[in-house]
UniProtKB/TrEMBL annotation:
Residues 23-55 form the Ribbon-helix-helix protein CopG domain. It comes from Coprococcus eutactus. Gene3D superfamilies: Met repressor-like. Pfam families: RHH_1. This is Ribbon-helix-helix protein, CopG family. Coiled coil: none annotated. GO terms for biological process: regulation of DNA-templated transcription. Residues 60-79 are annotated as: Disordered.
């Protein structure tokens, strides 16, 4: 697309364009935790949320895979 070739302002280089906005409501304490984590890791709060989402999806996919594979990962319920 022509839009992707437009030179943009300064910022972190990225391999994926982030053009979708997600609005969510969180309480003040969760916001403080998210902000502290982002500052500590020197990334944006958006990046922390993206990483968390990716981790949750990977865990869900692994659980789904383990449930489908005979002899898959054992849990306390199916020892």
């Amino acid at each position: 697309m022509a839009d992707e070739k437009i030179k943009r302002g300064p910022g972190r280089p990225t391999d994926k364009r982030k053009d979708t906005v997600l609005r969510l409501r969180i309480d003040a304490e969760t916001h403080k935790k998210l902000n502290r984590c982002a500052e500590k890791r020197q990334v944006s709060m958006s990046e922390i949320v993206r990483e968390a989402i990716n981790e949750i999806v990977q865990e869900a996919e692994a659980e789904s895979y383990d449930a489908k594979v005979p002899g898959g990962k054992k849990t306390q319920d199916n020892r």
